[in-house]
Amino acid sequence: MCDSCAPSTEMISAEEAEEFGGLSRRTLFAGLGLGLAIPAIGLVAGAPTASAASLMDGRWANPALGHFPQGGHFGASRPGGPHAGQDVTNSTGTGVYAAANGTVIRRAWGGGLPGRSGNGLVISHGHDQYTYYGHLNAYHVPLNAEVKSGQRIADMGATGNVTGPHLHFEVHSGGLGRITDPVAFMAKRGVDLGGGWPRIDPGSAGATVVVLQHLMRKHGHDLAVDGKYSSAAVAEVKRFQSAKGLEADGQVGPATWPKLVHTLRQGSKGDHVKGLQAALNKRSAGLAVDGDFGPTTTKAVRSYQSANRLVVDGEAGPITWRALLG
Ligand SMILES: [Zn+2]
Fold it and tell me: Where does the Peptidoglycan binding-like domain lie (predicted)?
């Protein structure tokens, strides 16, 4: 235990433990209330207005699956100063992914940032935006690596001043050292750090739009698969939403995704399988997008589930879909 850590003795509820099925209670308690106190750096109240490029879908991805521990939020009171990031708790070895395209500029203890500890990575995303990943168990990328949004970069761990495994995730916007609330920053870019369905707004583009287009084709909407959420594609989505009794706003979010995805398993064939393969490729699976759910796709699903502490059954159900897309 370090001087600056303020471990919480809060226990999670049985319901929360239930969500994490196979994990022991000890594991779940382990990441609570840790953190970094960063007295030297002031809190930035809000992210600057994002450029059009950084709002493009597919550019930002959920860095890790897990839950928010008590007291692990940005700005949480700590003896040495407010908490500089958002903690995401899961077990050691859980996959950690690049939050956006970028370059690994630090691979060092505490990311070379003052007050931080443990194995850390800093990725530069351009536009003066950076993300920091702390307390890692293992690195999957070298210093100076060019990384893609959603690419596996590390394993979650418990290195440094912690009481258990978790990812300490920071966003710096407007320059390295200018920390901002990662939850709000990511939410503006369609990513729920807590692990919800992503949001696609009209005009966006990217890998998640490709998945959407494949899924829409499965539902009988003849969309081009070009990764662009154009006005023609929006019009088709509005028709789909109306047919499903949803608000026809053209925004693909938590209400629309569950109607679009199918539970898929080995032997499934079609455009929905292409969507799944495209979603797995967002996570560096490197699959051929052929619409045929064979042993290679099963292996990729199992590998993703295992790395993210999901139930490892090789089937793509709603929980796996949500995790892959987020
Ligand atoms: Zn933290």
Answer: 206-259, 270-324
